Amino acid sequence: MSEQSGLGQVLGLVRRAPAIKRRLGRAVWVAVLGSASAVAGFVCVGFAVGAIVGGADELTPVLWWSGGALLGLVGGFLLRLLAEHLAHEASFEFEVILRRMLADGLARMPLGEVQRLGSGRIKKIVHDDVKALHNVVADALPFVGSGIAQPIAAMLALGIVSWKLLLVVLLMVPIAAFAMSLMTKDYAEQRNRYNQASEDVNAALVEFVQGMPVVRTFDDGSTSFRRFGDRVDAFTEAVAAWSATSRSAGLLTRLFVVPLPTLLLVAAAGVPMLAAGWISVPELTIALLIGAMPIEAVAPLMHLTNYINDAKAGAVRLTELLEMPGLPEPVAPKLPADASIRLDGVSFGYDADRLVLRDVDLEIPAGTVCALVGPSGGGKSTIARLIPRFYDVTAGAVRIGGVDVREMESAEVLRQVALVFQDPFLVQGTIAENIRLAKPDATDDEVRAAAEAAAAHEFIVGELPDGYDTQVGERGGRLSGGQRQRITIARAMLSGAPIVVLDEATAFADPENEALIQNAVARLTRGRTVLIIAHRLSTIVDVDQIVVVDNGLIAERGRHADLVGAGGRYASLWARHEQASRWGLSATQVQEATR
Amino acid sequence: MRRILRLMFVAAGPYTAEFRKTMRYSVAATLVQAAAYATFIPLLAATAADPVDTGRAWMWVGALAVLVVVEGLLRAREQAFNYDTWPYVTQAIRRSLGERLRAMPQQELGRRAAGDLTTLVGSNVISASTSISLLSTLFVQIVTVPAVVGLVVLLVDWRLGAVLAVAVVLAIPMFRWIQRMSNLGFRSVNEADAAAADRIVEYVQGLPVLKATGQAGADSPRLVEVLTEQQHTQSAANRSATVPVAGAQLLVQLAMVALVVVGAALVLDAELTVPLLVAVIVAAARFAEPLAVAAVLVKVFELSEAALSRIGAVLAIEPLPVKAGGSAPTSFDVRFEGVSFSYDGQEKLLRGVDLVVPERSLTALVGPSGSGKTTITKLITRYADPQEGVVRIGGVDLATLAPEELLRHVAVVFQDVYLFDDTIRANIAMGRPDATDDEIQEAARAANVHTFVDRLPHGYDTRVGEIGSALSGGERQRISIARAILKDAPIVLLDEPTAALDTESEVVVQEAIDHLVKGKTVVVIAHRLSTVVGADQIVVIEDGVVAQSGRHAALIADGNGRYARMWQAQLAAREWHVPAGVNG
């Protein structure tokens, strides 16, 4: 795939939208017509001059030719304008089509895969990379049309008027072709080095800027600035190296792929030819007017390489994302019998060769609370992700209400499970819109009841200017962390999902509103099947089942009192927890003498 | 346009002299170029004479040849800047921006999003330096060629010159119009892009909810809505920017036609000879070209002006002034004397704060988020200067200390740990670049870094980026504490260092902190009050003022005080647990 040329990559994407492909084709043809018309206009100018020279008394031919010139030039101009318009409109539409295709693909992909890619990277592909295609699709393609048509039309016209002068103009072709081949040659080595250096500079830059608080307090400049400076220097060298290899081509282009040398050639050949009576003054005039057109049309084509190279990387990423496999959906979807959860011999690995869960059995009866504890990286979050089918298991089965999640529609699985384990997620819009997201047809009363249960109603009507109609700002920026958290709990309430998966660390991130959130969580879990990833062990002493997950295995399970009594893995975690919560800084500590 | 040239000179920095020279070459080359086009007038006059004046024609061909060669030589000199100097201009701008970022007041830095700064030093610098090397010469050409050709035509026949003059006069408001429309369009497209990008992020993050409720996929209503809106904005902006550009280009073409018509009329009236008319037409075609190009380039000029002025704005930010009369502090108590501070000059974050942190004592700052706790610690690092009052270390006003001097005395452990993509050793050594390996290892041991470094592939030489997410939050935090231990600064600021850790990491990070604070003047921001009950003083900050301060026991004794209420609430929350299920 990636060996394909940049243009091939972009065209491959265009081919996915046949209607756009046809519209772009039309735009190219209009551009070709426009170029031909412009050339014809210049030829008419030449003949108008000829008519004046030929018979100054006769006004009619002069007017006719002048009329033709006007028509050709203006017509050519308008046609090119139309071509540009058509190409731009098609390109804008193409962006929408492509983005919607991507949205569709994302909706079909395993959610875990989407999360792994990350919203930042996906945004870059779906927004920025698609946008970067615009230059090629809207600007470059019609350019190709006129860039090829104009020289051909100009040479044809000149050939008809005076083949001798055409031969003179053609003398420039090898030089221009040589310059062009040098210029458009892909200096892959230099380009890769440049791209690498450019990426390095950006990485160093991000580090330098983001690490600034550390830099300010820890670094006298010797470390971080040197790292930044080194990368800038490496970039400079890469650019200088590239410049050095392309400078002769660039100069050659700048000196010869411009009109003057061609015009000089035409003049130098034209004078003796005219003196010898081989050509007429109008012929020479026409040659001077359109002789440089082929060469002028070639110049912008050379920028095309840059455009295409710029869009290539993005086009490759887009193609990759579009071709990512989706989760298989069942042909005859089933519905769960109840809200129980069961893992039967589940093994799972993000990479095929490294399992993060091995043969895990777990049973959570409907309406009970199960807490997962254990070290970070032990497998707790992976178990939590497998239940709503963020990934498919490598071996074994995850069942909800007795049905394998792979035999349910993936949307149905998500309707069964409310997730409160991400960072509180809010969309731009009002508070009511945000809660209603979980059930688009919910009535105002339902929304309000959910907010009340989530301990959110009070701050919504008491503290926000427009109550439920308050705009939450970009990603909920106008709300505090605890408020955002309660909105997402309200959403989970409204969804009516019988299963709740909850990450305690994010649920209780706001120490000031701890009590309120605790009440909200207590109401959310009531009557539901709950899986909670726990960090602070004191919060889970009452739950029905505590499962210690370590190293991809279930190390222990049971109730708090029994596990503490057993003196195993959980008991030592509990001891640690007790130790940590006893810790505090004290005055005596800082008064001790320095070592 | 003058403004953009001035900005270019600012950005050229140390290469100003070369840039000026290049501009001179460019003007010279362009004048020669224009003169070359002008020679077509006498040349064609000679060829069109009846009979052909071969001698004069050859003379003008010779002149043309000389001019073409001279232009080529001058162009080669002009281009040298593009090829030889451009990379170094980029380098110089980036380095001086880097210096500025380090030196500017932290507050100024905090006002700018990290992403914006990355764009500034990344792509804005490229477009600025490109405009210096490429756009400047184009600019020269666009202005000079029409001027010279126009002048020559005017000399040939004033009426023909007048036609061109009218075209130029009409074109100027057109260019203004293009500028305005493309600016407007640019802004509206930027807004639509930002909205679409945000909505895409939203879509990805909300996919589980959206999918459950049938709002995901190609027809996702929230997504389609904003994408369609974006398409309309793009189309409208494109149309409104195209109309004036098209107008300007059409104007130029019409001027050409008008020239032919007026010229023909003059010839018919025998006021102009045919050869001269032909020559004028050929030359005038050259007059039109740069104007048409200019119409397209206005947009590019606007963009690079924006980039140049953003760079100029950052380069103009001065570091905080260091007042005279300061001496290095010899003792390390921290004092706030009537300090008031505001970010924007309106809303005060701190109001008349008086605070004494004696040397080798532990002070805890507590209170609701947004009350001003973090601002107090920031002012100790001279994040910005307070509008009123003084912050002192060992009696010395911070405003009289050079940044490097202040830096030596303060170590900060942040809640969000930032590690550089370098080895673990280098990340620790940042605390004291001249530390020996033994000292680094000792600091690492004290911070409990040793325990996990042993299992890493290259020990202390493992690069942080290589293992990336393999380091847990607690491990990263321990590296940052080792950095602070190695630095051994007399004042230590802690911002909730164990807030986001799990139980197991918490214990080892707590041990690391115990090592760090030994014998130091410590200011800690704490949410969990239980972690600071042993402090020398607990300061309750509320709404930018010190609401209460004292030892834990004394504060608790005032049962109605803010602190006692916070304490009660936290005790209750600590007792809470998830209830068992109904079927459990």
Which residues of chain B form runs of ≥5 with pLDDT under 50? none
Quickly give the CATH architecture of the largest domain in chain A. Answer: 3-Layer(aba) Sandwich
Q: What's the overall average pLDDT of chain A, rounded? A: 86
Broad CATH class of the largest domain in chain A: Alpha Beta
Structural class of chain B: alpha/beta
List the quaternary state of the chains.
heterodimer
Q: Please provide the count of β strands of chain A.
A: 10
User: Domains counted in the coordinates of chain A: how many?
Assistant: 3
For CATH, the homologous superfamily of the largest domain in chain A is named as: P-loop containing nucleotide triphosphate hydrolases
In N-to-C order, the SSE pattern of chain B is: HHHHHHHHHHEEEHEEHEHHHHHEHEEEHH
Major sheet of chain A, described briefly? Answer: 6 strands, mixed
Query: For this structure, what is the CATH class of the largest domain in chain B?
Result: Alpha Beta
Q: What is the CATH topology of the largest domain in chain B?
A: Rossmann fold
Helix tally of chain A equals 25
Rg estimate of chain A, integer Å: 36 Å
Q: What strand line-up does the widest sheet of chain A have?
A: 6-7-8-3-9-10
Reported by name, the CATH topology of the largest domain in chain A is Rossmann fold
Q: Kindly state the mean pLDDT of chain B as a whole number? A: 86
Instruction: Give me the CATH superfamily of the largest domain in chain B.
Output: P-loop containing nucleotide triphosphate hydrolases
Strand percent estimate of chain A = 5-15%
GO molecular function, one term (chain A): ATP binding
Transmembrane segments (chain A): 28-56, 62-83, 140-159, 165-183, 255-278
Membrane topology (chain A): Multi-pass membrane protein
Domain ABC transmembrane type-1 (chain A): 31-310
Short recap of the structure:
Chain A: It comes from Kribbella sandramycini. The complex is a heterodimer of chains A (about 600) and B (about 575). By secondary structure, chain A is α/β, with parallel strands linked by helices.
